[in-house]
Write a structure and sequence with these properties.
CATH topology of the largest domain: Fumarase C, Chain A, domain 2
Helix content: 55-70%
Number of helices: 21
Number of domains: 3
CATH architecture of the largest domain: Up-down Bundle
Radius of gyration: 31 Å
Length: 435
């Protein structure tokens, strides 16, 4: 991932240097296990632990010659060791024993970072949901004014969905927290399961119950799919903020920093560029899913068609997810909420948005539903065409309506309060308010 969309923590986490250091950790732990089994002379693992080092640029130099990164790594590490110790590095292992175990370790740690990011965003969304619980706003379906609702419910909905995202990522993380040191085709021909168990315990990973030369890539695909769904949630939030920041709506406004400029040509502009960035990069995050799924299918016990893909997929996807979640957290924390504009927008149709309550009141008063619908719709459409007389005024002059509803009853149909009546019930049901 380019530096523009990568936080320093993730850049370092997925650097070549970090990867080779993780490979070295696997190699040293495997030596410790061999030594405990009496298959490697005593003291070898301690000396390797003390003296072994690896530099990414030196591995690169060897790889130019070998065209094999693991052999390049082994040679680079060997330079830091006495020859009698260096010969035991990679003892009994195949390349993917080390590569897949290290990749699983790095991926689970990256997901732990993302899970912490998600927790911070969840807290920000929860705070907005509670702050705006009783703030009325017009609900929109198909982009058209529907009925009043609570603005807080929007934030609550996103908070709840993000919780499901967290659950998915957590499950994917746990399914990814496996390793394998089972040899070239997964049958432990050149090393016993005890070596694998020792290394897994020390690294906080579980040995896969069964592997080939590799860990099976459904695990990796689950990680990418979970992150893509998370991206969809972030895009959903960003899109609503963008729509609500439009000049004609003006209900929400993403943070605009002191000294920030919105347009090179139009000084008045305050564009939702941060939310647009989230929406755009979420497309990229979703785009990683297809190659992750295709990586599941390999020839027999293993080919390397997945390897080149994963060098891009996993670092990029986790780095991008980390960036997007932290970016959205800053947006949510700093968003401006124009509650008065929400009220103005709710009232701009002259009460048309209360048509559903009028319909129900007429039905309860004895009018057939079809006829009541026709009466209400006629006045609503006429008010929309000619706003010189409001929907409410037209209803007060309708003979059939006056026969069934008193002036006070009709007036109560245009009250926002009933649309907020069960908001607390919803909040309690989803855990945002105490029961």
């Amino acid at each position: 991932m380019i530096d523009r969309y990568a936080r320093p923590m993730m850049r370092k986490h997925w650097s070549d240097q970090t990867r080779y250091e993780r490979w070295l950790q696997v190699e040293i732990l495997a030596l410790e296990a061999w030594e405990r089994l009496g298959q490697v002379p005593r003291g070898v693992s301690a000396r390797v632990q003390q003296h072994a080092s690896v530099q990414a640029d030196r591995v690169d130099e060897y790889e130019v010659r070998y065209h094999h990164d693991m052999l390049a790594f082994i040679s680079a590490v060997g330079e830091s060791l006495a020859s009698d110790d260096a010969k035991y590095v990679h003892f009994g292992l195949t390349s993917t024993d080390v590569v897949d175990t290290a990749l699983a370790s790095l991926t689970t740690e990256a997901l732990d970072i993302i899970l912490a990011d998600v927790d911070a965003l969840s807290d920000a969304l929860k705070r907005r949901a509670l702050e705006n619980r009783t703030v009325p706003v017009i609900g929109r379906t198909h982009g058209i004014h529907a009925e009043p609702t609570s603005h807080g419910l929007k934030w609550a909905l996103w908070w709840l969905e993000l919780g499901r995202d967290r659950d998915r990522i957590r499950r994917a993380r746990d399914n990814m927290a496996v390793m394998k040191l089972s040899g070239a085709v997964g049958n432990y021909a050149n090393l016993p399961p005890a070596v694998e168990e020792y290394v897994g315990e020390r690294m906080g990973l579980k040995p896969a119950p069964l592997s080939t030369q590799i860990l099976q890539r459904d695990r990796h695909a689950e990680v990418l799919t979970s992150l893509a769904i998370l991206g969809g949630t972030l895009d959903k939030i960003a899109t609503e903020i963008r729509l609500s920041q439009r000049t004609e709506v003006g209900e929400l406004e993403e943070p605009f920093a002191q000294g920030q400029r919105g347009s090179s040509a139009m000084p008045h502009k305050k564009n939702p560029i941060k939310c647009e960035q989230v929406s755009g990069l979420a497309r990229l995050l979703r785009g990683y899913v297809v190659p992750a799924l295709e990586d599941m299918v390999l020839w027999y016990e293993r080919d390397i068609s997945h390897s080149s893909v994963e060098r891009v997929l996993l670092p990029d996807a986790t780095t991008l997810a980390d960036y997007l979640v932290t970016q959205m957290t800053r947006i949510v924390q700093g968003v401006t909420i124009h509650a008065e504009r929400m009220r103005q927008n709710l009232e701009m149709t002259g009460g048309l948005v209360f048509s559903g309550r009028v319909l129900l009141a007429l039905v309860k008063g004895g009018m057939s539903r079809d006829h009541a619908y026709d009466v209400v719709q006629r006045h609503a459409l006429e008010a929309g065409r000619d706003p010189s007389q409001s929907f409410r005024q037209r209803l007060t002059q309708d003979r059939e309506v006056k026969e069934l509803l008193s002036a006070e009853q009709l007036e109560s149909m245009f009250d926002v309060e009933p649309y907020l009546r069960e908001v607390d019930t919803i909040y309690r049901r989803i855990g945002l308010l105490d029961s």
